[in-house]
Amino acid sequence: MKTRLCSWLLLSFITAIQSFEDCAAASRPNIVFLFADDLGHGALGCYGQKKIRTPNIDRLANEGMRFTQCYAGSNVCAPSRSTLMTGLHTGHTPVRNNGRNRYLYDSDVTVAELLKKAGYFTGGFGKWGLGDMGTPGVAIKQGFDEWFGCYHQVHAHFYYPYWLWKNDTKVLLPENEGGKRGRYSHDLIQQHALDFIRRHHDKPFFCYVPYTIPHVELTVPEDSEKEYRGQFPQKTIKDPRPGYISSDDAYATYAGMVSRLDRSVGEVMALLKELKLDENTIVFFSSDNGAQGNQWQPLSEFFDGTGGLRGSKGNWYEGGIRDPLIVRWPGKIKAGAVSDHICAFWDVLPTLAELAGAAAPNGIDGISFMPTLLGKGAQKKHDFLYWEIPAAQGLTQAVRMGDWKAVKPRPASAFELYNLKADPKETANVAAEHPEVIRRITDCVRVARVDEREYPEEEHRPGIGDYVR
Question: Which pLDDT score is estimated for 85?
Fold first, then answer.
């Protein structure tokens, strides 16, 4: 009798624990983070775009909250993603610029590691940029249970590569060998993301989808480009990099790329509804930095990709770092809400940690914006936001402090100063008129950073021959 009673009590205890865990899991939302590449906020209808159709992203905004003052982690790809993953701005985050074999260390704590520890199944699909194979920074060593796509940034440049990574295994794409364009990598990555959601619909999951679209090279399958062909002036934009695809109808190509991104967002939302996950899934949509510049500046100008703001990818003016951010969670986030809360990518980690009931690491720079999302409680604000890019010549930097924005566009230059409330397009440098503000900003910079890690030079910088043949 005693043995049977003990067995019954043990079974009851185990069942109760399992029931508690199941209830706890059910109360936590699934998290989907959709992330475009080089998409200026002005390219979306919900931010004022008139020429490119983005109905699915616009619907996301209509059913959720649209932020008007969200900032990228940096003005280029890799460091922006580093701030997103670590909750540390570029004065502290491990990866602060592109190149030089920069990567995350084992000791770095990512949002994926926090969510995995909290019981989430974690999957990433697309462009990583924080460590290639052979380094500890690879995604499957940084908290992701599975990954499909590209680890190295250069790999992600190509939409018709002859292989992609699935965890630590190369998946060959023979349809693309010999210069053929048989399999558009974006579409295959999207299929894997959707499959991940299907396979893990019954437990909390974190699905991170850093799409490469609309980063150049400038190419998209015919079914997306034909939607816009003949609607715009025909414009040839040649990619100066050897072997990269160019376009003789660049406006139609670019618009098709953005609309294909929008279609993919719609597919994710349709699947969540089909699986009855719609109510218990919070969906984020953003982009890693501002609209593409340089040779591709005509695209941003024609489509007003920066929403009229100064600058583009690669600099610290608003057009280079002001990003779209849309968050949807039915029944929790008010539909059609618009927020002017000033936030940045390093705020994502503490926000997702709070959603998952996990503790964010001590010493991070981010602040959870859950009070803003839910409209409950007092929203803590940043004293200032800080950015930097290290280069051989020194640092370029930017600071936002209230309505003031300081930009050091070149390592040897002084800070320029703009009042964003009076001058959102940063047309008038008023540094000479406000030395006291410059002093305050200089004080912020002094305490905002530590020196960057020393990374070795890449023995071999990958190029087109590594990924396309």
Answer: 98
- Both ends of the chain: CA-CA distance in Å? 73
Tokens 């009931």 sit at which residue? 357
- Cis check: omega of the bond before 204, within 30 degrees of 0: no
**Torsion angle (degrees, nearest 10) of CA 154, 159, 161, 167:** 70
- Both tokens assigned to 79: 């460091």
The beta strands (E) that lie in 329-411 are given as: 337-339, 343-344, 385-391, 394-401, 404-408
**Cα–Cα distance measured from residue 211 to residue 105, given in angstroms and rounded to the nearest whole number:** 24
CB half-sphere exposure, 408, CA atoms < 13 A: 20
Please identify, in words, the CATH class of the domain defined by 389-448: alpha beta
Residue-wise pLDDT for 134-189, tens only, equals 999 999 999 999 999 999 999 999 999 999 999 999 999 999 999 999 999 999 99
Q: Is 446 exposed, middle or buried (0-12, 13-18, 19+ CB in 10 A)?
A: exposed
The domain covering 29-384 belongs, at the CATH homologous superfamily level, to: Alkaline Phosphatase, subunit A (3.40.720.10)
Token couple for 401: 């402090």
- Residue 213 structure tokens: 């679209």
319: nearest Cα among 332, 310, 329, 327: 310
Residue numbers of the chain with a pLDDT score lower than 70:
1-26
Q: Cα Rg for the chain, rounded, in angstroms?
A: 23
Give the β-pairing of 281-287 and 30-36: parallel
d(CA 199, CA 189): 15
What pLDDT is stored for residue 18 in this prediction? 41
Q: Residue 148: what are its φ and ψ, rounded to 5°?
A: -140, 125
Query: What does pTM read for this prediction?
Result: 0.94
Q: Residue ranges per domain, the chain?
A: 29-384, 389-448
